[in-house]
Amino acid sequence: MAMASHSAQALSLACEGVLRRGQSRPSLPGVSTAAEYQSAVRVAITAAAVALSTSKRLLVLAGAGLSADAGVPTFRGEGGLWRTHDVERLATPGGFAADPEVVWDWYRERRLHVASCSPHPGQRAIALLSAHLPAPAQVLVATTNEDDLLERAGVNQVVHLHGSLFDTMCAANCGWRAKDDQDNLLSLRPCPACGARVRPGSVWFGEALPSGPLEAVARFEPDACLLVGSSLLVQPVSGIPNDLAAAGRPVVELNPEETGFSQVAAASLRGAAKDLLPPLVDLLTSRTMQDQRRRVT
Ligand SMILES: NC(=O)c1ccc[n+]([C@@H]2O[C@H](COP(=O)([O-])OP(=O)(O)OC[C@H]3O[C@@H](n4cnc5c(N)ncnc54)[C@H](O)[C@@H]3O)[C@@H](O)[C@H]2O)c1
Ligand SMILES: [Zn+2]
């Protein structure tokens, strides 16, 4: 299908007011009552599910917004980490070289904070989707998030495109890397393989992404994408949904804010991940969708 036809189907629904905070609903053209509003939300979610319903290799691509509902701050936007913290000092190779202890203190703090958060219903819905999207459809879950909330929600395999918060690795690039989720023990010692300093296993600004995770996404050859909570401002990951949309593949976006991608999305759902993912996954795994899939494939 051509990109233009996806644009024509693009749905935009500003429903975060009701769905996120249970307060007054935002105004939608032709919608005046709460019941009409809920029905408009259902229509938008259904359109998003239909756009993804014939996918055989569905990529779920999640950004920091997916973890926001669990209490993990995003980088940009309201309450974002970069509004209060200095990127250059905390998340660049230069910042680490200048003061490794300041960087480690911040990372240990983030590890502790993430460990105190629990997966929310939207993350659990992604786990259900990856386990229950009816065969022969397959799901690959990839994220720029460094936290482990998707794993804790029950997703078996998560492709971490920007590294992992709980990994510690050799700062001299000897190749040593290990899970460091036992009281940050490994972060306090030199590299056991070569004796150099160790650093957090996150990808920092100015660094290339590890090729393995990007290759895993390319090998999967997604034919559709569910894009959750990403501002798509970070390359090269932002190229993934853009390339899929340019190739005429349906990409559904879920974000409380309009993004630069909203206009090319097959459907753009406005709202919080914890509210919109459960009903969307319910539909995608429903008998109605299975029947539709059978008819089309
Ligand atoms: N949880 C984490 O591990 C974490 C947290 C902060 C930043 N990061 C890093 O941030 C960088 C990338 O940028 P990004 O685009 O992922 O994040 P970003 O901070 O640039 O954008 C977050 C996006 O999430 C949306 N959002 C906010 N609340 C949401 C909600 N409740 N539901 C759905 N969407 C919501 C925002 O509108 C925004 O578009 C990555 O490098 C990643 O490593 C990771
Ligand atoms: Zn080493």
Question: Can you walk through the features of this model?
Answer:
- It contains 14 helices and ten strands.
- 42% of the residues lie in helices and 16% in strands.
- The chain has two domains: 3-72 and 119-162 and 209-296, Rossmann fold, CATH 3.40.50; 73-116 and 165-202, SIR2/SIRT2 'Small Domain'.
- The chain is an alpha/beta fold and 297 residues long.
- Mean pLDDT is 87; it is low at 1-26.
- The protein has helices at residues 3-9, 16-21, 34-52, 64-68, 81-84, 87-90, 93-98, 100-116, 121-132, 149-153, 211-220, 239-246, 273-284, 287-296, and strands spanning 12-14, 57-62, 138-143, 158-160, 163-170, 177-179, 198-202, 224-228, 251-254, 267-270.
- The structure holds nicotinamide-adenine-dinucleotide and zinc ion.
- The site of zinc ion (ZN) has 8 residues, from loops.
